[in-house]
């Protein structure tokens, strides 16, 4: 069982929810009884976070009997996690484990849905998810999008070259060809990506040597126009729409000629509902 968070991080989650013990369970005097907790998918979903949920139970003193691995597509009613232990131990982990799996499965399910829609339309485009996840939770976010079949657009500023207009404010336009050539030479194993906001920008930055043009807020029609213009000028940069790419328009961007999709939509997807059932042993 591989978790993307270490025990220290998972224990911190438990401590946030139960800093001084479970007052209700203790007051009722039921904590020592033997119990079973089963988590099930209320609806079809792409599972993520089951390993972390299982480890949370173990850290609280329970025993994991079975779980469905992250990345698995399941139907409504599928059992995701079965654990046993004392009532106290299971209640300590219950809500944190359930909520974590719900949120991560929401992200994974959205990513999987976008990719499936594109495939069903006859296209095979990668979905690259941005770094616009909730700060401090990138390991969980990356696990979730990966479980959904997507890839990371940028894991962070340290490992990617992405020139924004906000960078270009500090460079004269005439200097860009030489600057891009120097960057490509200094980091030959990296793709040089440039964000553009207009067709004119796209043509200029392609001429400057950008490998990938990140088309910010381009409509599918504008992307198609950009593709035609690049072809007419014998320019070969890859086109990646970004900003507002969702399940509803992913296929339209694919049909317009996108080489891959860039989106943060999965991070804002509704959580998937996980049902929890307690029983005596």
TrEMBL record:
Signal peptide per UniProt: none
Pfam families for the chain: QRPTase_C (PF01729), QRPTase_N (PF02749)
Keyword Signal annotated: no
Quinolinate phosphoribosyl transferase C-terminal domain residues: 107-274
Top-rank taxon: Bacteria
Coiled-coil annotated spans: none
Transmembrane found in the keyword field: no
Keywords: Glycosyltransferase, Transferase
Residue ranges of every copy of the Quinolinate phosphoribosyl transferase N-terminal domain listed in the record: 22-105
NCBIfam families: modD (TIGR01334)
Family named by the database record: Belongs to the NadC/ModD family.
Protein name (record): Putative pyrophosphorylase ModD
Organism encoding this protein: Uliginosibacterium flavum
Name of the coding gene: modD
